[in-house]
Design a protein that fits this description.
By secondary structure, this protein is an all-alpha fold. It is built from 21 helices and no strands. Helix 5 runs antiparallel to helix 6, helix 7 crosses helix 17 and helix 10 runs antiparallel to helix 11.
Length: 528
């Protein structure tokens, strides 16, 4: 018999309410860390220079947070949640301090890498700790609230960033993390019990390195392609080659690792595979399409950057309300299969509505369309984590939770890049006759307002026409996610902390042993 799992040794007599408060603070900290920078970028560039490296202030955080997610998940499974989440908070705060005192763009980008190394762990470990202190049936409503926290951070981040830049300085968008982070660190130190038993563990360094190389290449390819580097350039082709080679190397290593960083057997778990595929597709649609909503509001509707953030509130209202409602439904019924089907169907309708946006669309209609999109996004944000956590054995809880975040982030990165390419190509083609060189060079609300009326009307019409394919593709992706939802084999939500799914894993273990090869170890897809 194997040593007691982390789940069994960290969940006794803990102040659950206090822990949930600390986890909510940690999630808000990590989520705002992703969004607070956007409104401060012009001021940062004006002071530090480095306009050509502007996008790296955001990309650096996204890249590092994405690649470390599965590593944090596995470390939490091996060594316990408390020490790992405390380490993530300290790393995040260290990156925040270094970013706040940065004197040039290079230092700021390196600081954002460090911040992301902590931020990626914050999200993963926070969601995993909830699974350690609450059974799946009860944690549904908590995960629903946490989904609302993510949505709220999308609005709060840019608004808070703009407020701090206007009233203090851009340095404070990083220093503001310190009090919340220290508070969360103190509460976790007091409330969360450490792992009671320590056993000898082997860290899969080779798997971690190959997974990092694969994810880094994928994120860099989608982030740089079409903007910094041409899609067919030698560096971009090299990134593809590295990603493919790392993938095959990763599979070979994981088949033989005693404690694989991402057990291949998980991919033979129906809930894990389908839920993460849906999350990936929703990430493509959500991040890819919603990126263009503030642009539409500023360029076509003529609102200010701050106002465009406020106009996203209807979408966040829909997201938060349905995320919370989905959590309540899961907790009361113990079922969840129909929720992603319904929500992605509504998301497809919302994206179709956004594809009808034009130069004369009234703002109340724009708000309604965004509200529908939010309704569709909410349940998906809360269902995925709970469903996956419920469907895997305790020793794989952390890495399975990390996978949900990882697939959604990768989907978002690909969506932003792909939709950006579709939009830019369409706009360049439509405006080549009326603008020198076409495209979006120097293309903003101020420059458009200064154009002659006839040219301005043509430009705005071309702009909205170029947005339509983006939202239509996002609608199609949402339909695919909806259809995939029908393939989910629902595992009833557990009502106790130690209860694991019963029959599914025996079949998966046999399938994994035959397809992947080699025995199924504690780190594979078997139970502890």
């Amino acid at each position: 018999m194997s040593a007691p799992s982390v789940q069994e040794t960290e969940t006794v007599d803990q102040p659950v309410g206090l822990i949930i408060f600390a986890i909510a603070a940690v999630l808000l900290l990590a989520a705002i860390g992703q969004t607070i920078v956007s409104t401060a970028l012009p001021v940062i560039v004006a002071e530090l220079g480095g306009l050509d490296h502007l996008t790296w202030v955001i990309t650096a955080y996204l890249l590092s947070a994405t690649v470390v997610a599965p590593i944090y998940g596995k470390l939490g499974d091996l060594y316990g949640r408390k020490i790992v989440i405390q380490s993530a908070i300290v790393i995040f705060l260290l990156g925040s301090v270094l970013a706040g005192i940065a004197g040039n763009m290079t230092v700021l980008i390196l600081a954002r890498v460090i911040q992301g190394l902590g931020g990626g762990g914050l999200m993963v470990m926070a969601l995993t700790v909830v699974a350690d202190v609450l059974p799946a049936r009860e944690r549904g409503k908590i995960q629903g609230l946490f989904g609302g926290v993510f949505g709220l951070a999308t609005i709060i981040g840019p608004l808070l960033g703009g407020f701090l830049v206007e009233n203090l300085s851009w340095h404070w968008i990083f220093f503001v993390n310190l009090p919340l982070g220290v508070l969360a660190l103190g509460v976790i130190a007091f409330a969360l019990k450490p792992k009671g038993n320590r056993t000898e563990r082997k860290v899969d360094y080779a798997g971690a390195a190959l997974l990092t190389a694969m994810l880094s290449s994928a994120v860099l390819y989608t982030s740089l392609g079409g903007n910094t580097l041409p899609w067919g350039s030698a560096p971009m082709l090299a990134l593809i080659a590295i990603a493919i080679a790392s993938l095959f190397g990763f599979i070979a290593v994981e088949r033989r690792a005693a404690e694989p960083i991402l057990p291949l057997g998980l991919f033979f778990n129906n809930t894990f595979l389908i839920t993460n595929t849906v999350g990936f597709i929703v990430g493509v649609a959500m991040f890819g399409a919603i990126t263009f909503l503030p642009l539409y509001l500023q360029v076509v509707q003529g609102v200010s950057p701050t106002e465009s953030g406020l106009y996203l509130l209807p979408m966040m209202a829909g997201l938060i309300s349905t995320s919370t409602l989905a959590g309540v439904v899961m907790s009361r019924t113990g079922r969840y299969r129909l929720l992603p089907i319904l929500s992605t169907g509504i998301l497809a309708i919302g994206m179709l509505l956004l594809s009808t946006l034009g130069t004369e669309t009234a703002m109340p209609m724009v708000a309604l369309y965004m509200f529908v999109v939010g309704i569709g996004l909410g349940p998906v944000m809360s269902i995925g984590v709970t469903a996956v956590q419920n469907a895997v054995p305790g020793p794989q809880l952390g890495v399975a939770t990390a996978s949900v975040q990882m697939f959604r982030q990768i989907g978002g990165s690909i969506g932003v890049s792909a939709f950006g390419a579709v939009f830019s190509a369409g706009l360049a083609n439509r405006l080549r006759a009326v603008l020198p060189g076409g495209g979006t060079s120097g293309f903003d609300a101020v420059s458009i307002a200064a154009m002659p009326e006839g040219v301005r009307d043509t430009v705005l019409a071309g702009f909205v026409a170029s947005l339509q394919p983006v939202f239509l593709i996002a609608a199609g992706a949402s339909v695919i996610a909806c259809l995939l939802g029908f393939l989910i084999v629902e595992v009833p939500l557990a009502t106790t902390l130690r209860q694991e799914p019963e029959a599914e894993f025996e079949a998966e273990e046999a399938a994994t042993a035959g397809i992947v090869g080699g025995p199924i170890t504690e780190g594979g897809s078997g139970r502890a």
